[in-house]
Amino acid sequence: MTSVSLPRPHFADTADWQTLAPWITTGLAFLVLFWEPATGVARDWWRDPNAGHGLLLFPVALYVAWRSGLRPGVPRPAVGTAILVAAALLRYLSGLAEELFTMRVSMIVALCGIIVFAFGWSQLKRWWLPLTLLFLSIPIPAVVLGSIALPLQLKASTLGASLLMMRHVPVVQSGNIIQLPNMSLFVAEACSGLRSLTALLALGVLAGGTWLGSAWSRGVLILLAVPVAMALNGVRIFLAGFLVYYVDPRLADGFLHATEGWVLFVVAFGLLALLAWSLRRVETALAARVGTA
């Protein structure tokens, strides 16, 4: 009987496992520590209309990070460890206080600590845009949400009522209630423009980080997103009142009302893109002037 020697199975080199082991351990530790806030924020993205923009921002942030690439600099283990310890402490204290926003922010802080620990400050600067998008995907705390929503409701109601009066529609405004001859329009929290404002701020950050090259122009674009969102929401209320008065009161609700919101959001995004293009032209002109000086 002849013996046949079977080939030995091929195993990865020990050095590969030594390289992968710290990353696997870090990933497992991150999941254990932040499983609750991560799953909680995912549920809010799916269930809460005010947080639904996170469903778009999260994959966009991952894509932007992938496009930016990984160019490791000088690792900073000491600083990275300090940031990680601060993130774990923040996670623990916010868990005791049951403060969801701070608990979720601690995940972003921990990610920054891991990046600095392994790749240095240069990679953290390189990934500033996806990290900012991740931060903006965290739902706003309910206390802050309530304090912002009411002023937005009043501003939108005032603007909508003013536009209606300009079109000779008789209106009487009382807070966030617009009284028309045939019915009353109640500007609810959902119609305050907060959702569109949050989404447009995120789009402003994304457009600024992608198309603009200077910090001042990015800041201007983000600031301009606020009046754009408020103006478009006032126009939405005007359209609702105009259709109610001249066409049919039933048009204040339902599919057409929702469609108005989507159409105006697309218009707002177009205006934001136009503003970004204009700021880019200003950047180019200033750079050319400095170059010829």
Contiguous helical run count: 10
Give the DSSP E fraction (strand runs of 2 or more residues): under 5%
Content-based structural category? mainly alpha
Give the spatial strand order of the biggest sheet.
Answer: 1-2-3
Our count of domains comes out at 2
The termini sit apart by 91 Å
Please mark out the parts with pLDDT under 50 across 5 or more consecutive residues, or reply none.
1-12
Biggest sheet details: 3 strands, antiparallel
Q: Shape from CA axes?
A: globular
Specify Rg, calculated over alpha carbons.
Answer: 26 Å
The quaternary state of the protein chains shown equals single chain
Order of helices and strands: HHHHHHHEEEHHH
Average of pLDDT: 80
In helices, the fraction of residues equals over 70%
Count the E strands.
Answer: 3
Structure description:
By secondary structure, the protein is mostly helical. The protein has two domains: 18-139, no CATH class; 143-292, no CATH class. The chain has ten helices and three strands. It has helices at residues 14-47, 54-68, 77-97, 100-119, 121-126, 128-136, 142-166, 194-211, 215-246, 255-292; strands spanning 172-174, 177-179, 184-186. The protein has a three-stranded antiparallel β-sheet with strand order 1-2-3, with helices on one face. α6 runs antiparallel to α8 (194-211). The longest helix is centred in the C-terminal third of the chain and has 38 residues, at 255-292. The termini are far apart. The model is unreliable at 1-12 (pLDDT under 50).
